[in-house]
Amino acid sequence: MMVKRATGLWIILVLVCMALVPLNSASANTLSDIPDAYSKEINYLIGKNIITGYEDGEFKPNQLVTREEAATMIGKALNLNGSTPRVTNFSDVNPNSYAAGYIQSANDQKIITGYTDGTFKPKTNMTRLEMAYLLSNAFKLTDTSKVFYTDMPSGTAQSNAIAGITNAGVTNGYTDGTFKPSASISRAEFAIMLARVLNDTFKVQPPEVTGKTQYVTVDSLNVRTGPGTSYAKIGSLGFGDKITTYSKTGDWIYVKTSSTVGYVHTAYISTTVPTPAPTPSGKKIVALDAGHGAHDPGAVKNGLSEKNMTLAIALKVRDILKQSGIEVVMTRSTDTYLSLDERVSVAQKSGADIFVSLHMNSATNTSASGTETYYTNAGTTSRATASKALAEFIQERLVDELGTKDRGEKTENYRVIYKNSLPAVLVEMGFISNTAEAKLINTHQTETAKAIALGIQDYFKWAEK
Ligand SMILES: [Zn+2]
């Protein structure tokens, strides 16, 4: 597709070059270090006097090309008016330098640009990406249809330039599927690319790269144009989708699917076919733990015992939740004793979604008051996040309902929540040691239970999102 648009210019170039530059194959063949694999391309350019060897008789194929050298060689290839040094648009190009005429001519033709600060940086090495810009601008290589390099985001000006030279048969990257856009370009690489632009017989096919089959392990996985969340989303993959993966950039990997190419996060793919999680029944289950029991009364103050208050309120929470279709498993529903580990075991064996333990607080300072809810950051990040959310929902409902002092959500590794794999909280509903607060909660058991149930329902609504 590109060839049509460039043919006119190409013919003119070749005619001009042939007319003005005498072939000098003798001098080309005297250079000692031209790599055999690319001797045709390099000698072709030497023959056109576009690139030359050094006085010591070497070509120095691995030496890097500076930006002024690149401008000069391209200028010669395009037969730009450059042999006479002159003042340029750039503050850091010496008007008397050998390259000044070519730099300014190339800039006039919009083939080469400087930096936003008005400099050209003539002595800086040219990168492979800059070479792509240079060649795609100079030779109007505008076929930007998709090419496949594992280290290039798609749909950017950069990738368009690289696609342009790739689709024109000027390059096919490296054997590992990369293009290495920021690598400096050597004299051999520069010569090979330029020779391919000028002569069809040197052209190469776009790269074919083999990848590895992997599978998506989540329901919705975004595909992005580049390796990071700041890149645009161009597609979405579903659980079990088969993908072909290529090279990694940090935590991101370049993938091809039946419908798209782009980057996905490596955390959500697997080399084995993932097994779907069992379909949830839709029924929520709460493990409810009334603190203390039997020979362990908990705190006993103001004529009340903690074990009786927690059980009475827990039973009311159970009834309220059941009415709203939430299943409840009680660690105890009578005045019995279970160890802390037994409470955890009951909850986990029941298949519960969450664990809520109820307690009353106590302090020697009888004026201490308020409601507080504990969770722990132990376990997986998702469990910690869920536990914190559960604590916040219950705490807010209780303080709102009872009008108690808001002592907040706190982290503490209490055994019943720390040893638990479920999202888990321990609620200190109020101070049994504070006469007024003990009486308030004891006479408002139903309201207290309702607030806890509402907090649990808030949590389930949040968790479903
Ligand atoms: Zn307690």
TrEMBL record:
Keywords: Cell wall biogenesis/degradation, Hydrolase, Signal. CDD domains: MurNAc-LAA. Gene3D superfamilies: SH3 Domains, Zn-dependent exopeptidases. The keyword Cell wall biogenesis/degradation applies. The keyword Ribonucleoprotein does not apply. GO terms for molecular function: N-acetylmuramoyl-L-alanine amidase activity. Its EC number is 3.5.1.28. Residues 25-85, 86-149, 150-208 form the SLH domain. Pfam families: Amidase_3, SH3_3, SLH. Residues 211-273 form the SH3b domain. It is an enzyme of class 3 (hydrolase). Residues 1-28 form the signal peptide. This is N-acetylmuramoyl-L-alanine amidase.
